[in-house]
Design goal:
The chain has 279 residues and is mainly β. It has 2 domains: 142 residues, Distorted Sandwich (Glucose Permease (Domain IIA)), CATH 2.70.70.10; 81 residues. It is built from 3 helices and 18 strands. The strands form 4 sheets. Strands 4, 6, 7, 8, 9, 11 and 12 form a 7-stranded antiparallel beta sheet that branches. The N and C termini lie far apart (44 Å).
Length: 279
């Protein structure tokens, strides 16, 4: 029976390729409590509360991270740059400089409910795919109370190249940011005078009528200013038929944004240009 379980676990683990999630020790023995400070960006944007509960006794094991309490849907950002991995309710990053981190209990509810529908648009940033390279401060997802959480929080773990470490010293000295890092394609291709540019990931598309519905990632104004969205926001555009015929929207990936340029004419929105997503 044990060998069967080991084989099954190995098969599941292989699905993550070179970047499986870090695995914390599950033991009543004391964890390594070395006070190591890593330069990181604080992983939450906005109000939060935490204490040094790493290595605390829990039911049958030691606590392997820091629980950062915050309201549901608080934005989570990457503490350092590296390779992104995820599964339902959890993310991890293999840092470019040898460290790793893991966060869990991400949001699993439709905002304003406790429906547990596990809609990834309310769990992770819309433009992420397993194996992507993320920058420090990039939007990752949103705080929730999924799994066995007793309230909304981010359970946050850090790993040195030789094993798990207490995140508390790094969190105490982390840089706090007020908005996610600007992650936008072709930053210098700003809108023309009185135009705006939205970076939008496709969610639905009706060819007849040119109705395009998606989730907003970032905005850019004609001044060049960029705002990265830190809460899920859905938008709808109407594309003119001649524009529709030039675009193969059915083939667009859902986790890569299109650039939609438009201008406002009173209450009317006129789309002037669309740049398809990168594949």
């Amino acid at each position: 029976m044990i060998s069967v379980l080991m084989i099954a676990a190995g098969q599941v683990w292989a699905a993550y390729g070179k970047f499986p999630p870090p695995v914390a020790p599950y033991s009543t023995k004391s964890l390594n409590t070395a006070r190591v400070k890593m330069p990181i960006i604080f992983p939450l944007i906005g109000g939060n509360n935490y204490s040094d509960d790493f290595n605390a006794h829990r039911s049958g094991h030691r606590h392997t991270g820091i629980d950062i309490k915050a309201p549901k849907m608080t934005a989570i950002v990457a503490p350092f740059k590296g390779t992104f991995g995820n599964k339902v309710h959890s993310f991890w990053i293999y840092g470019d400089y040898g460290w790793k981190c893991l966060g869990t209990h991400l949001n699993d509810d439709t905002p304003g409910t406790n429906d547990g529908k596990n809609n990834f648009d309310f769990m992770f940033a819309p433009n992420l795919n397993f194996g992507d390279h993320v920058e420090a401060g990039q939007l990752i997802g949103y705080v929730g109370n999924s799994g066995d959480a007793t309230g909304p929080h981010l359970h946050f773990e850090m790993y040195s190249p030789v094993g798990i470490r207490d995140p508390y010293p790094s969190l105490q000295h982390a840089m706090h940011i007020s908005s996610p890092s600007r992650i936008i394609r072709n930053l210098n291709e700003k809108p023309e005078h009185k135009e705006e540019r939205y970076e939008v990931c496709k969610r639905n598309w009706i060819h007849l009528g040119g109705s395009f519905y998606g989730i907003l990632l970032a905005k850019q104004y004609d001044t060049g200013r960029v705002i990265t969205v830190k809460h899920p926001s859905f938008v709808t555009f109407s594309f003119a038929q001649d524009l529709v015929e030039k675009l193969d929207i059915d083939s667009w990936p859902t986790n890569r944004p299109a650039s939609i340029y438009f201008r406002r004419e009173g209450e009317k929105v006129v789309v002037t240009k669309v740049v398809p997503p990168d594949n």
